[in-house]
Amino acid sequence: MAKLWQKEYSLDSLMEDFTVSNDYLLDQDLVISDTLASIAHARGLNKINILSDDELKTLEKGLEEIIELKEKNNFVITKDNEDCHTAIESYLTNNYGDVGKKIHTGRSRNDQVQTALRLWMREFALKLSTETVKLSKELLKFAEKYQDIPMPGRTHMQIAMPSSVGLWISSFAEEFIDEAERVNDFIKILDQSPLGSAASYGVPLDLDRAFCAKQMGFSKVQKNVLYSNNSRGKFEAMLLDLCDYIALTCSKLAQDLILFTLPEFGYFSLPKELCTGSSIMPQKKNPDGLELARSRSSVVSSSSFRVKSIIRSLPSGYNRDFQDTKEPLLVGAKATWSLVAIMSRMIEKVEVNEENLVKACVSDLYATDEVLERVKNGENFRDTYKNVGLNLDSVKKYDPYQTIKNRTSIGTTNNLCLNENIEIAESLLLNNERILNNYKLAYKNLCQKDIEVVNI
Question: Is 363 one of the annotated active-site residues of the chain?
Fold first, then answer.
């Protein structure tokens, strides 16, 4: 089939390479969501008598076939197609004749790709939230197991105050929970259908946009048709910003593990199956996964920045620039997914070296404890602070285990509130499962089978 916009001329080959680029390859990720949206659109056309009942059945049959082909990796999108939209329409026309030429009635590739992306982003965000919460639960499990093991707390990388393995690791757990909740908040924004906005200005057909939105499991319609278009890139950037926060936390956790697994520290150890070797130094066992976690976090950050840079100065309405937001969205989203997965595996396998941790709790660590002990006995803080600071050699070595038990205010070493965080995590997982099941029910109503649009 010719391009959807085909005129009486052939496009210059260099211009085709430049305008299509790798977009047709990226669209492999959107075939399922685009096909589901097309079924919903066809039902909407049937509702306003653009398609007969028989034509609708034929198109649904063809679209279901495309889903089956995609699931077997047998649905091909070529460079000549430009994108999955043309490939889908070509399949319908080639296999079912003129009825395939009716599927695009009342929509543009603009709202078509917006809807496919919205379905993909909505489900990806939900699944990323779930995986982030699962990582948090892995960290909380680690914290429960090792909460009573002392560990030096550090500021400016220097010995600071008494801490514990439980406090250190559960700080990341709580952070990931907050980040997952922010992703869930954003899903409410993603959960609105742009289908029917066409090329930013709607069409002179009585499309029932609410009907089509409900078919796809959207909670509402993105009402203003121009806003529907203008939100492209913006929503991608917002999702990538949320990914970036998760990636930043992964990077900090990775950096801590790199530092604390150094032989000079030896607080923790990584199993050999999570380390790589050197091509010249036979003794090396390198934490390459953690190092790449730091690097991949910058891939996520740059993806977010790239999208915002593309859309920053665009006027209202569709502009071809939007095409170039698709790659950073998919690259950044997948990089975040991989980060969460590898950090979960690292935490599952890391070993705690209690003897080294206790040995690292040197007397300087207790300088502040010494000050506060004297304050409790009636001395004023400032003079005592100065006196201890000038006589650090006089600071006694406290019992590291007892010291962390003495800290009982909320969030300190002997009151980590782990059960509360576990309850929040479990609640998030149940909520996410409920929402995903609602999506699946909508998809099953469209294509008569259990299906998900995001498979990473």
Answer: no
Q: One of 278, 295, 316, 427 is an active-site residue; which one?
A: 278
259 contact partners, CB below 8 Å, separation of at least 6: 265
Query: What is the residue-wise DSSP string for 419-455?
Result: HHHHHHHHHHHHHHHHHHHHHHHHHHHHHSS---S--
**Domain ranges, residue 49:** 13-102
Q: What would the mean pLDDT of 193-209 be, rounded to a whole number?
A: 97
**Mean pLDDT confidence for 34-56:** 98
Does residue 114 sit within a domain? no
Same domain, 350 and 389: no
Q: In this predicted structure, what is the pLDDT of residue 27?
A: 84
Query: Whole-angstrom Cα distance, residue 422 to residue 228?
Result: 38
Active site residue 278: yes
Report the pLDDT value the prediction gives residue 7, as an integer from 0 to 100: 61
The DSSP 8-state label assigned to residue 276 in this structure reads B
Per residue in 90-129, pLDDT tens?
999 999 999 999 999 999 999 999 999 999 999 999 999 9
User: Is 124 among the domain residues?
Assistant: no
Is residue 303 within 8 A of residue 331, CB to CB? The reply is: yes
> Please, where are the H alpha helices in 48-83?
53-71
Cβ–Cβ contacts within 10 Å for residue 355, how many? 8
Q: Are 247 and 172 in contact (CB under 8 A)?
A: no
Which of 91, 85, 103 has its CA nearest to residue 40? 103
Model confidence over 249-267: pLDDT tens digits?
Answer: 999 999 999 999 999 999 9
Q: Among residues 156, 279, 313, 409, which one is catalytic?
A: 156
Does residue 366 sit in helix, strand or coil? Answer: helix
- Say whether both 87 and 135 belong to one domain: no
Rounded percentage of the chain residues whose pLDDT exceeds 70? 98
Q: Are 291 and 222 part of one and the same domain?
A: yes
Q: Residue 283: its pLDDT value, please?
A: 81
- Nearby residues of 374 by Cβ (< 8 Å), 6 or more positions away: 384, 388
Whether residue 300 is found in the same domain as residue 351: yes
